[in-house]
Amino acid sequence: MRTPEQLIRDNCTISDCDRTRCIRGWCSMHYQRWKRHGDPTTIARSGPQRRQCQVDNCDILGRSNGWCEPLWYQVSRYGDPEATSIRMSPGTYTECRAEGCGSIPQARGWCPRHYQHWRKYGLTPDDYASLLAAQGGGCALCGGTWGLAVDHDHTANKVRGILCSPCNRALGKLGDTPESLRTVLMYLEGDDA
Predict the structure, then answer these.
(1) Domains contained in the chain, CATH given
(2) Model's pTM, two decimal places?
(3) How far apart are CA 51 and CA 136, in angstroms?
(4) What is the pLDDT of residues 158-191, one digit of tens each?
(5) Cys-Cys with 2: which of 6, 117, 159, 164 at CB 3.0–4.6 Å?
């Protein structure tokens, strides 16, 4: 039986490799190749050939979903490679696209708040403004304007309205069910049943 010192000094079992062996009789390089490709002698796995970017007049090789890397970044962030070159030009969209917002844009030209409304609930800033106007410009329950938030049904993910922060939290604490609200109403009215 070999001693640990003899094992350390042995070379890799792959022919023409004079590196010190570490694991399974291979050097670390051949062991990593075996882990990645299933064969210690494979240098690189041959994959599909990369095509040109799918945008006309773009000579860069495509990386993801047929887009080159710069355009993929623009598409994933803004949704449209054509419009992003305009959006990313100096001085354009230094403020949120939503009228009267003034915040710094995060994605698709919207600030984080408007972008989240669109991403989570499908509400554009115009939809949000019309919903708020239909409610009288404030909370659907109390009419307050502090910390307005989009209220939605968690099971159907359907927007119900816009509530102020205290009303939204109270509704959430009660479990968003009509039965729990009826129980609270009976308690407040003093009914024993």
Answers:
(1) 4-37 (no CATH), 97-123 (no CATH), 135-193 (3.40.1800.10)
(2) 0.49
(3) 54
(4) 889 999 999 989 888 888 788 888 888 888 888 6
(5) 6
